[in-house]
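Field guide to reading this record: the first block holds the primary sequence, the second block holds the structure written as discrete tokens, and the final block holds curator observations. Each block starts with its own label. This record concerns Vesicular inhibitory amino acid transporter, catalogued under organism Papilio polytes.

BLOCK 1 — SEQUENCE
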Amino acid sequence: MSKKSNLEAAMSSSTSKASESTPLITKTNDNGEEIQKGGKGLSVNQAALLVAGEMAGSGVLALPRALVKTGWIGVPIIILMAAMAAFSGRRLGDCWSIIEGRDPEMRSRKRNPYAIIADQALGKTWSAAVSLAIIVSLFGAAVVYLLLAAQIIEALVLPLVPTVTFCIWYMIVAGAMTPLMLFATPKDFSFMGVIAFISTIVACVLYFIQMMNDIKPFVFRWGIHGFQDFFLAFGTIMFAFGGASTFPTIQNDMIDKSKFGKSVHYSFIAILALYLPIAIGGYAVYGESVAPNITGSLTATPLTLVGNIFMAVHLLSAFIIIINPVCQEMEELYNIPRDSLGYRTLVRVSIMAAIMFIGESVPRFYTILALVGGTTVALLTFILPPYCYLNLTSQPPRQGEVTSEAPGWMKLICWEIIVMGVVGGAAATFSAVSAIFSTAQATPCYLK
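BLOCK 2 — STRUCTURE
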């Protein structure tokens, strides 16, 4: 009796302690992986909103000008690149699921999941290369987003404060966004995805209505301009779908990471539904005269004004989403403890200082956009995801592990995307570099 009472007391004590410390319910998904219901994390819809929210802005503004340089053939190219980027994003999610299945320790949240995928699939050298490419890619995108936001804000308030220059507005915007960079991981700012995506939808609807009001009887359209212009536009299109750098970080914060593929599908369908009307409408209505930033071609009306406000909100919200993986990469590099707010603040303020310097040095966003699109975006979105997937699935299974070899048709699509990414990225990079050195660049703000 004493043994039984002691056992019951021990069980009662352990149960009460467990219930006090972990109120989570553990379940198993379709892949046999454990997921925790009741814990903090992103749902499928929240992850989709974050993916769509961080990508949708720059493409909406820049794609009409890209069609000027490609002609109408740019429309099927946009659709093709969207399908390729979605396929690659799905394979990147599969890579992390494979790694988690092989090593249960990987199921805890990681700061640099993309680098871990490259390490497991290709080795340490590629892991370091991926970390560097992520920093360069998202850093460049962050600069572009702040430049666009500052450009829109300057146009909005120009009648009120005509003496405040674009360079000063860029510094004001960067300073205002610095405190919002202190969110630790995407699960801490899932609301940013909602804000970013909804604001983009509203802006696009208003822009499209204004385009229809601006229709003219005849607009001149030239078609394909030549090799350099075509691949400059190609780099812009690649950039418009270049969100893969953040995909593993967002997936890593999901409650059920195996469902990331659904989030990718939902987000790319939504993005394409936003991109195509604005890109086609902008080229059809304004023709060769469309500006690099479509807002510069719209007639100044209350519709355009409100649309610009919502687009500025989107760009600033998307900035917080895309800069977070860069911050986490740098914190991992310097071994910053997760609970060290002081060191984290120091790292992230330093990153913002670098963003301010680059933006003040190269205040023309479209040259940065095309160059980043042809280099790091091509690598991280179109080349490495399918290549890592092919390498992981071709590795011999470990003891007790079920083989995960990819079917033949998937291997074929993966290699086609890899070749397209290499060739298109190289041509876009060459065109972007040629354009940078062959045209007069704007004087850096600090030299004026």
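BLOCK 3 — OBSERVATIONS
Residues 41-397+405-438 form one domain.
Confidence is low (pLDDT under 50) at residues 1-38.
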